[in-house]
Amino acid sequence: ACTGKEKVDEKEPAKTDDKDKDTEVEEEEEEPAEEEAVGVDFPLDTTNSEAAIEDGEMIYALVSSDPFEGTLNKVFYSGAPDAEVMQFFDEDLLAVDGDYLITSDGAASFELSEDNKTITLSIKDGVNWHDGEPVKASDLLYAYELLGHPDYTGNRYTFTISNVEGMPAYHDGTADTISGIVVSEDEKTISITYDVATPSVMSGIWSAPVPRHYVGDVTTGDVTIDDILASNTIRTEPIGFGPYKVSKIVPGESVLYERYDEYWRGKPGLKSVVLKVVAPGSVVGALEKGEIDLASVPVDQYNVLKEVQNIELLGQVDTAYTYIGFKLGKWDAEKKVNVMDPNALLADKRVRQAMWHAMDNEVIGEKMYHGLRFPATTLIIPVFDSFHDADNPGRPYDPEKAKALLDEAGWVDVDGDGIRENAEGEPVVLNFASMEGGDVAEPIANWYIQNWEDVGIKVQLYEGRLHEFNAFYDLIETDEPGIDIYQGAWGTGTDPDPEGLYGDTASYNYTRFVSEKNSELLAAGTSEDAFDADYRKGIYNEWQELMVEEVPVAPTVYRYELFGVNKRLVNYTIDAANLDNKYPWKWGVSQADPVK
Amino acid sequence: MSLLKVNDLKVHFPIRGGFFKTVVDQVRAVDGISFEIEPGETYGLVGESGCGKTTTGRAIIGLNNITEGEVLFEGTDLAQLSGRKKRAQSRDIQMIFQDPYSSLNVRKRVLDIVAEPLRNYERMSPKEELDKVQALIERVGLGPEAVYKYPHQFSGGQRQRIGIARALTLNPKLIIADEPVSALDVSVQAQVLNFMQDIQKEFNLSYLFISHDLGVVQHLCNRIGIMYKGRLVEEGTADEIYSTPQHLYTKRLISAIPEMDPAKRLEKTHLRQAIDDEYRTDYDNYFDDEGRLFDLKKISDTHSVAML
Amino acid sequence: MLIFILRRILIMIPQLLLLSLVIFVLAKAMPGDAVTGAFMGNPDVTPERMEEIREKYGLNDPWYEQYGAWIQKFVKGDMGKSYVHNQPVTQLLAGKLGNTVLLAFCTLIVSYLIAIPLGIIAGRWTDSWFDKLIVGYNYFSIATPIFIFALLMLFFFSFHLGWFPFGNSVDIRYDVGSWDYFVSKAKHLVLPTLSGAILGTAGTIQYLRNDIIDTKLKDFVKTARAKGVPEGRVYTRHILRNSLLPIAAFLGYEITMLIAGSVFIETIFAYPGLGQLFITSIGGRDFTVVAALVMISGAAVIVGTMLSDIILGIVDPRIRID
Amino acid sequence: MVKSVLEIKNLQTSFRIKDNYYAAVDDVSLTVHENEVLAIVGESGCGKSALALSIMGLHDKKVAKLEGQINFRDQNILNLSPAKLNKIRGKDLGMIFQDPMTALNPLSTIGAQIVEPMKYHLKLSSADMKKRTLELLRRVGIKNENRVFSQYPHELSGGMRQRVVIAIALACDPVLLIADEPTTALDVTIQAQIMDLMKELQTQMKSGIVLITHDLGVVAEMADRVAVMYAGEVVELAEVNELFRKPLHPYTQSLFSSIPSNIKDKGRLHVIEGMVPSLQALDRNGCRFAPRVPWIAESEHENNPKLHEVEPGHFVRCTCYKNFHFRPEESEGDNHVFA
Amino acid sequence: MKADVVTDKNVLIAEAKANNQSFGKTIWREIKNDKMALGALVVFIVILLAAYISPFFLDVKVVTKIDFHKIYLPPSAEHWLGTDKGGRDIFGQLMIGARNSITIGVVITLIAGFLGLTIGLISGYFGGKVDFVIMRILDFLMVLPTLMMIIVFVAIVPKFNVWSFIAIMSVLLWFGKARLIRSKALSEKELDYVNASKTLGTPNWKIMVFEVFPNLSSLVIVNMTLTLANNIGIETGLTFLGFGLPESTPSLGTLISYARTPDVIQNKLWVWLPASLLILVMMLCINFVGQAIKRASDARQRLA
Ligand SMILES: Nc1ncnc2c1ncn2[C@@H]1O[C@H](COP(=O)(O)OP(=O)(O)OP(=O)(O)O)[C@@H](O)[C@H]1O
Ligand SMILES: Nc1ncnc2c1ncn2[C@@H]1O[C@H](COP(=O)(O)OP(=O)(O)OP(=O)(O)O)[C@@H](O)[C@H]1O
Ligand SMILES: [Mg+2]
Ligand SMILES: [Mg+2]
């Protein structure tokens, strides 16, 4: 596949406070590194301790092979590149902590009601849009009005939004207002009431306001949503209340920001910021030449990158994992539930366990990714420190164990061709679907096929090739009968709740795995009780255990993400817990020219 | 009964123009000509370039569509025939082309060229075919090895003779010769002309001989038709045309033949000047009100002129 | 002339309509649609929601109804809305079209600047040392895959020497219209232009060379020499003028070829233009954009050939267009 | 004594064919006098055009090699530098080409093409040049000269174009005009007009003309003296009346008797046997015509035949003319098939 | 004496038979006389042989076996041209890839050539209404932006493999040829040898196939050799853009498109350079041979 196809939107850096939850990740274009990693312990913060100069300028690379789409509004944008553009001039009212849970450190503070159903936000003083207007509570209401608007076609009308009381009625057009949202007289506070209480509110609430006065009001009929979409107020002259204001945009290519002196947290650290799109292949060269100060770098270039003298490399584990899914049933479109098929080829969990044991992910991580990927153990990633069960070893590479499990399951080689027949003694060839995505997808798919063949399971690529993103999901989503195994990847977003991917009514539960225990645990994980973190952790540990036992999917690798930073940068971090520096306003440079 | 009778033949080509490229006018390439050819006779068709000679020939043999009029060959209208009959009839009329280079397919050996009509009309074993072709080739004065050669290995005159051999294969009754010698050098031309005369005697052929070289026409033809702007302006025996031309255009044409006696060249120049003057002054008298040449009118048994 | 243009435009209409139908059907036949492209894999967007959006976009109507609705708008100049960019396609294209046309134009000029002198030299001094070199270069340019060449250009001139920027069309820090802006724009154009131009000369050189060799032998050239025209002038006044004619006539065609062929160059140099947009849009199943781009290319071909005919009609007295 | 304008001495023009040079014009010596039309006749490929192009210096140096002398006004054209040659070409030497369809630049107006030689050779203002051009056009018999001036070649008929070609050749009042088959591509009536025009112009201008043709009719109408060429050599040279009255060389005789209008009774035409040998196959030592008259005994031919002056001004090459007769059984057929 | 004549005759006939120059022979002679073309032909044949014979010695399974312990090994005795990102042998892939690429190029050229030839010939030969209709269709097809259409088709086709690739390309690459052939056929049919055949009673289809076609053959052969080079190249380009053949079908394009990251292009030449050079060499060879054939078809330019 080519760079042009990559679906990047889910690959957002953790620092952007996007509210999306679990999302699909396409394998990005990554090259294996040839030498072994010397140790994959990257710093999270820059080490430059000099003071930032007064009128510095930073050049930020938006690493993408495509231009950014340029819908610069949190309600309407669709791609991650746009989110990166917005981070400099706009922000959410609520800040989040290291666990991605909301705090009151942002431009607004919040309070949760007793019954956990109502959340009240109070906007702090001095929070003003770039045009000088104060940010009002009704601006946040406006965001909800847009999100729920019948004409809204974006992808953010999600559960957290529709869960707001009165939202469905408003969305259907049967109500003019959203009954669950109340704005105070003084436009300083806003309270939002939900139909169902869920801890997801702590990580999922929408708190990005839209400047009603600036983009125009659809509720009064002044403008339509299409007008807004076509309008320069969200394209080339957007405003926000973030640390920098947009001074100029060359659509798709670059943005020039200027310091917004009245930023509510204080005077930002840079006089100006230039953001420009840099193709993944050019990132290293640009960093080395000092053309850019900051870039998320493709891991495949780690090898070259670590030799580059004028930059620092920051890295951390990404909010995503790759997995192998076993097709176990079908989606019942009528009832909107997943239905397991007891006759599925891989209905026996021992076979699935064996297949997991057979996969040598260690080598992939070390050889191809230079240690920047490592074998995954459970379905809740280590990023969620408090929920990831570090003690659960998953199913490490162990071909002997795999063989034993297969023997146990009755999959033995009857006819002596080195390939096992199934319990009924029939020869089996499993069809494996995998997505195109960078240069590594193909070798990895074939590597697994070889791994499986080593333990005696014959697997072949579905249709003999990898599938392009759209085609792949067409196949998986429709439960194409020919496919038995597939390789996918999920971005988890910032909410640990796996319900959307593994619930019995979740359409994204592509394996169609259902079990009572599973449903029970998932429900418990988001129940009111789960506002108690320990309780929740217990539940999720149990769930992780269950998934390692049942193996509807076998997670393969967790991944690191890397950032290259010019040594003149100060106060920069990728650490979500570093509440001071994770927002752009403090970022600065210690000298006028980049270190070369 | 005459072998070929052409009756008020018209061939018009559409001129397209205007916004939608519709037919806005017609090129009247041949605009109502009539003549007859008797068996064994050579009929010459003469006129300046673009007057419609070639078109007439092509219309007779069926390469051009006839707009109006009829072409009777041995009494049957060729245009009315169809399918098998037409095929049967059309083997009796053959054509010799002007350009000995383009009229032979350079990618074929002489054998295949000359045998082409045989393969179309007759079933012969390869041996018979080869014999027949070889006989023909020798008849036109080429060595037997010639059948295995390609056209580019021959000179213009030889090529023209191969073309003639091809036309003779089916023993036609009428041969339409469209300027068969104008691309050839004088001495080669003589060769071909002699040869045409020989085979005419031998096979009792009739020729429709199209040319603009009056010397050649005079040498070869019994009767001559003079064409001008798609019409016949004069028709008669070779003698009549050359000794007593009646139509102004004929006179002009004849006066243009270079004088072969250097001593008389001044005379000839003066004659040309005189006819030119006449041509200028009398030109309009030869056309009717619509600007069309008059129909032919007999002035003797064999001689007709297009005059009032 | 006017009639000629009018007629050509009249012919163009059914052609474009047919093209629109073809591309519409094809775009629809691609697996997935814009909604899949945008929302697939986002668990928060339920299948119902996706259906709802499809319904809103009219993606569930029978294709002919969708086509009818789309083409009606299209005729009025509304190319629909990009699903991925959430923006009217016309607006989306505006900037990129300019970039692509500029690039195509510069490439054309530079390739002519290279090709015409070389073609002339090769044609005039056939079989000379120069000629052999030029013919060699020609072979090289035909045989080298453009993307390898472009990549090498990029690595050498940008990465190693640092002479030229890595991508994009201009440095944002300069004000539109200022000298710096102009210089920056030019700097961004150099590599894409050169890569395209250096490999794009083969046709012209070969054509010119052959044509000059042919024209050299024409009778009217002998006439010119017989008039006592000096050799140099024979070339400039008689041979060249005749040989350049077809090149002028190819102009319109070449531009359209360059616009269509911009995909590689734009992708490699991250130059935001139509080619790059096309590839992105195919991936995102943004079929309004795909369709619009195909229509534009189709129209460009038609206009290009028309332009060629008009140019030829103007420069060649033998050809009258009406 | 009439002055000679052109003196060709032992001219040999050879073409390179695969590393060897073969003479297409072999040891030709001719003189053209003022106010005289020298016709050169011969069949296709005998070297007529090669001779004409040699005089004009129009051969491509890479393929053609020229030896001997071409003296034009006491300068040997062969030794002139290109610049000097260009001073003569178009000025004192004019050339008329055979095919009026291709001899004109399709992209220039008629006016521009006639003006062009004046620009290089005459010091005239552009208004004067235009005036002169219009006058020239009138002189070559074009009536609406103002219109023709700004027309393009394709807008004119063949006859008109040939007149334009003539006008170009006459543009700077040449002393010597070389006309390579000026009428061959034209219709009979047009041919007559062009012939008359050339005769008329010649009487006015008093220049020498080299008229190349294969049409004896044209020769009879126009020439003062005639050179007959065969296979690169001049085989007979005589005053026109003399030649037509008493052609001597076998080739000349054959040529005359193969013309239809010379045969009164529709009898058989004379056919020259065999073919013109190609440059490479030509036997250059004996009589070049010998292979085509095989019934003439070898002894009749000369070795390395010379031009003999049989009568004052009448030259014939090779002694074979003396006892020449047509093949007796000739009327029986032209081919060995019947032999 | 008589016998003499007869043998003489036979000798002559035999000689003529031997000397009759078919177009094929002319081409061969032309190539023989051009050292470059001859060399190019030899090289090309060697490449062809290598590509088509090597599979008998190469185990595809072994060549395409992933071995992550052998990633990006530089050339060595074991791996002549080193290994790629999956630890696969480049040399093996090069051989298999060359075969695939050449097969694709040749088959596309043949099919597109056949389509273009047939349709162009019919259109040009019959002229009139047939021509009008075909030309209008062609006019339309010419408007299609080829590269874009190919990409759209590639996106649509579900089972994308060598054959569907060939089908897509062939369907979209014949228009130009049809036009070329048509215009040539149009002028060819005006020539008298066609008229002659008509008057001799030869049916139209025979004239088309046996008279006109052979006269277009030189044009066709020249055009096909020159487009062969292009067609091999176009696969490479599409693969680079991500619309080419899957990696499981190695082609030269696959190998070259590995050269997408700075690291590979700068430091791992062995991965992409051999394939690039192979393409370059093949293109040059085909072009040299093509030029010789072109000269052979044009008597004016012939060297021999
Ligand atoms: N296919 C055609 N379409 C349109 N016009 C044609 C066509 N064929 C011939 N003409 C026109 O018909 C007229 C007669 O042409 P034709 O070829 O019969 O003349 P010709 O007497 O044979 O002339 P030439 O001596 O030059 O061969 C010419 O004006 C020619 O332009
Ligand atoms: N450039 C050339 N290279 C090689 N041979 C040539 C060249 N030009 C002419 N010849 C040969 O020289 C000989 C004389 O040619 P030339 O053109 O002078 O004949 P010609 O008498 O003018 O014939 P025509 O009446 O056909 O014009 C011919 O055999 C011809 O093939
Ligand atoms: Mg004619
Ligand atoms: Mg000549």
TrEMBL record, chain B:
Keyword list, A-Z: ATP-binding, Nucleotide-binding, Transport
Domain of life: Bacteria
SUPFAM superfamilies in UniProt: P-loop containing nucleoside triphosphate hydrolases (SSF52540)
Record has Chloroplast as a keyword: no
Residue ranges of every copy of the ABC transporter domain listed in the record: 4-254
GO molecular function: ATP binding
Homology family: Belongs to the ABC transporter superfamily.
Protein name stated in the entry: ABC transporter ATP-binding protein
Lineage, broadest ranks: Bacteria, Bacillati, Bacillota, Bacilli, Bacillales
UniProtKB/TrEMBL annotation, chain C:
Membrane topology: Multi-pass membrane protein
Chain ranges passing through the membrane: 101-125, 137-159, 189-208, 243-269, 289-315
Keywords: Cell membrane, Membrane, Transmembrane, Transmembrane helix, Transport
Domain ABC transmembrane type-1: 97-308
Organism expressing this protein natively: Sporosarcina siberiensis
Subcellular location: Cell membrane
SUPFAM superfamilies attached to this UniProt entry: MetI-like (SSF161098)
Protein name (Swiss-Prot/TrEMBL): Oligopeptide ABC transporter permease
Secretion signal span: none
Superkingdom assignment: Bacteria
Chief site of localization: membrane
InterPro entries per UniProt: BPD_transp_1_N, MetI-like, MetI-like_sf
UniProt similarity note: Belongs to the binding-protein-dependent transport system permease family.
Encoding gene (name): opp4B
A Pfam family assignment: BPD_transp_1_N
TrEMBL record, chain D:
Family annotation (Pfam families): ABC_tran (PF00005), oligo_HPY (PF08352)
Single GO molecular function: ATP binding
Keywords, ordered alphabetically: ATP-binding, Cell membrane, Membrane, Nucleotide-binding, Transport
Annotated ranges, domain ABC transporter: 6-256
Entry-linked InterPro entries: AAA+_ATPase, ABC_Ni/Peptide_Import, ABC_transporter-like_ATP-bd, ABC_transporter-like_CS, Oligopep_ABC_C, P-loop_NTPase
Family statement: Belongs to the ABC transporter superfamily.
NCBIfam families named among the record's database cross-references: oligo_HPY
Annotated protein name in UniProt: ABC transporter ATP-binding protein
From TrEMBL, chain E:
Topology term for the membrane: Multi-pass membrane protein
Annotated ABC transmembrane type-1 domain residues: 98-290
Keywords: Cell membrane, Membrane, Transmembrane, Transmembrane helix, Transport
Cell compartments where the protein resides: Cell membrane
InterPro entries registered for this protein in UniProt: BP-dependent_transpt_permease, MetI-like, MetI-like_sf, OppC_N
Annotated Pfam families: BPD_transp_1, OppC_N
Transmembrane annotation, as ranges: 37-58, 102-125, 137-156, 162-180, 207-229, 269-290
Similarity comment: Belongs to the binding-protein-dependent transport system permease family.
The protein's name in its UniProt record: ABC transporter permease
Organism: Sporosarcina siberiensis
UniProt lineage: Bacteria, Bacillati, Bacillota, Bacilli, Bacillales
